[in-house]
Predict the structure of WD repeat and SOCS box-containing protein 1.
Amino acid sequence: MASFPNSVNENEIGKAKFIGELLVPVAPFDQKSGRETWTVAFAPDGSYFAWSQGHRIVTLVPWSKCLKNFVGEGSTGVGPQQNSEGGTVVPVGEPREHTIDCGDIVWGLAFGSSVPEKQSRCVNIEWHRFKFGQDQLLLATGLNNGRVKIWDVYTGKLLLNLMDHTDIVRDLTFAPDGSLMLVSASRDKTLRVWDLKDDGNMVKVLRGHQNWVYCCAFSPDSSVLCSVGASKSVFLWDMDKYSLIRKLEGHHNDVVSCEFSPDGALLATASYDTRVIIWDPHVGTVLLELAHLFPPPSPIFAGGANDRWVRSVAFCHDGRHIASITDDRMVRFWTIDEKSPKAIAPLINGLCCAFSIDGSVLAAGSRDGSVHFWACPKGIASLQHLCRMALRRVMSTQQVQTLPIPPRIRSYLSYQDL
């Protein structure tokens, strides 16, 4: 049973609206491990939704068609085609449901696009095997064997096979600036930076984690990378210099998920210690803690096995809502100005979550290979919040603190009122 702060009546918390699910065919062998949906992802242009449905398979579904099916018919079953090359041939530019056989269990997924166009950082620009156009949409998959495979989303064709990790590639993230710089996080305790515009050459190995790296995320301006992992670790990296900026300390157990707010002013991290922490990444301070157990557990309890492990956290694109997936069979929707959930919904064995590009839908993957969808709680953002987001997209906390404005406004712009 979910636990909430005693100042909040559980009956006052709304119930999130369930809108549909994507299921996979059930076979006897599917009862074994390997069928988990470890990751879900939306294409940056909103054209596709992808999820690892278990047993090496990634399914890509046109998001508009998927959403229309939910609205018109409820849940949708998935029985897609495959081919021996790893995908189904699809006309370029025409979104169509198809699958990719990645050859091994898929742990990480990330869409990449060269829009907005940005040149490669590599010195040798005379010749490249691949030339990515603005209409190109790529899918990176992180596999159980340590490989990272890059696919053309429209054709299902394998473009690159990146081999350097020595253990499971747990997560992947593309720089949002269209540079096609890809970062992979692995259980081999490293992060590796790849330049896909330079034929997938590895640019840098980021070392510092003493244990598994679970997740990584770029800031919206692509200048900072957050990586989280076992042993309570939260690292921030300067992606211009490929150097460590700082370590954030505050969790009591493994940290398994992270994401920046759309304006880059906030960073959310999820941990097995039953908490989601909202940080100011510019100065490294804790702004808010979202507790999934009340009263708050002792560090000893939080640092061990408990039934409130937070598996995943996602920031909505409105900058106000956050979703979390926990082992207590619940998905929670939060707002950044409240310490208790705004809405909840049941979810058995949830593993991961992500918001759609417009922020209206949350997708959550589970251990049985299925994906469930909920409508994000609706609300109209205040003009103050919209102005704050616009300002924080171009100003750091340090810059805000130097503005000649009243302290109360400065505090609001710095998110210190959370």
Residues 63-73 form the longest helix (11 residues). The two ends are 27 Å apart (CA to CA).
